[in-house]
């Protein structure tokens, strides 16, 4: 399997954990003290790091650090939009499309030869 695919798959998995760690507590723990939410989020974030660190190490064998960062940002938006709409029950906004188009520009510039 190509390095960029391995990296993208692992970064996608880590991003799911990251998104729940950063934002999931807003829906599921809003009545709990913030310190409890922080501790739970840190526990979830541990799994994110256990996947993200190997993903970046694998990716860095063929990709630049800039390419890894832009890949991560595209994946972040691709994970965040469904999370926001499906889990957080936020409206799907056209702004996500515009943000995605801006990221496509970033992909072009960072990956062009």
From TrEMBL:
Membrane-spanning intervals of the chain: 31-50, 70-88, 94-111
This protein's UniProt keywords: Membrane, Transmembrane, Transmembrane helix
Keyword ATP-binding: no
InterPro entries hit by this protein: DUF486
Domain of life, per lineage: Bacteria
Pfam families associated with the record: DMT_6
The protein's name in its UniProt record: DMT family protein
């Amino acid at each position: 399997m190509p390095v960029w695919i391995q990296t993208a798959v692992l970064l996608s998995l880590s991003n799911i954990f990251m998104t729940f760690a950063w934002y999931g507590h807003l829906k599921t723990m809003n009545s709990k003290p913030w310190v409890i939410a922080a501790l739970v989020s840190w526990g979830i974030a541990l799994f994110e790091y256990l996947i993200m660190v190997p993903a970046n190490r694998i990716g860095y064998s063929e990709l630049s650090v800039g390419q890894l960062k832009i890949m991560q940002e595209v994946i972040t938006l691709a994970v965040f939009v469904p999370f926001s709409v499906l889990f957080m029950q936020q409206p799907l906004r056209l702004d996500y499309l515009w943000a995605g188009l801006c990221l496509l520009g970033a992909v072009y510039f960072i990956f062009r030869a």
